[in-house]
Design a protein that fits this description.
210 residues; mainly alpha; 8 helices
Length: 210
């Protein structure tokens, strides 16, 4: 817990320091530290995103064969499981990509500490652009951030069998629900993080087409 508190305190003090350098604008401090933290994590997150995309592409390539197996062994779950494992083994595809799952969890402590620091800074309040007080909710900001979430989701590939409309609109709905009553300072952090996520998706898609 001491290590966790120390990490949150470092991030929080960095926000206050950047705010002091911008005439005490806490929102600017939140945005600056969020951007720098996300920039530091960006290479790792991009590599994980590309790894997940490659795994999806390999799954898509064997999907017709898996569908055929389901039709052939629809009344025998044991044979279906054995045949499915055989296909994955033959193609060298892990049924559960543990490396990708564990890798995706690795940045989580940093992101959680950043979120905690943002909440503490936002609670202090202050004006930013049209926002009178970043410690209070701002409906316009929530709407803008939801629109960014829609854009990021629209760029992302949709898993086989999933509805693109649902996968695109769901992040926007969640964003609106959370930010409607959340401090605007958290909304600024959320919006910038969503924008970085959109850039990550663009670069991942570009790598898949190359």
């Amino acid at each position: 817990m001491t290590l966790w508190n120390g990490a949150v305190e470092i991030l929080r003090e960095a926000m206050f320091a950047y705010a002091h350098a911008t005439s005490g604008n806490l929102a600017a401090g939140i945005l600056t530290v969020t951007f720098l933290a996300r920039l530091a994590l960006f290479p790792v997150m991009l590599r994980l995103s590309r790894s997940a995309a490659a795994h999806q592409d390999r799954l898509k390539a064997i999907q017709p064969e898996l569908d055929a197996l389901k039709a052939r062994h629809k009344n025998d779950a044991r044979k279906l499981a054995e045949a499915t494992r055989g296909v994955f083994t033959r193609e060298g595809i892990p049924m559960l990509p543990l490396a990708g799952v564990l890798g995706a969890l690795a940045p989580a402590p940093v992101l959680l500490a950043l979120y905690s620091a943002v909440r503490q800074c936002a609670a202090v309040g202050g004006r930013f652009l049209w926002i009178a007080d970043i410690s209070r909710p701002d409906r316009l900001l929530a709407t803008i951030v939801a629109a960014i979430a829609v854009g990021a989701a629209a760029l992302a590939p949709v898993p086989e069998g999933q509805s693109r409309t649902l996968m695109t609109l769901l992040p926007a709905v969640i964003t609106m629900i959370v930010l409607w009553k959340m401090a605007a300072g958290v909304g600024l952090y959320w919006g910038l993080s969503s924008a970085v996520g959109a850039a990550q998706v663009v670069l991942t898609n570009r790598g898949r087409r190359a």
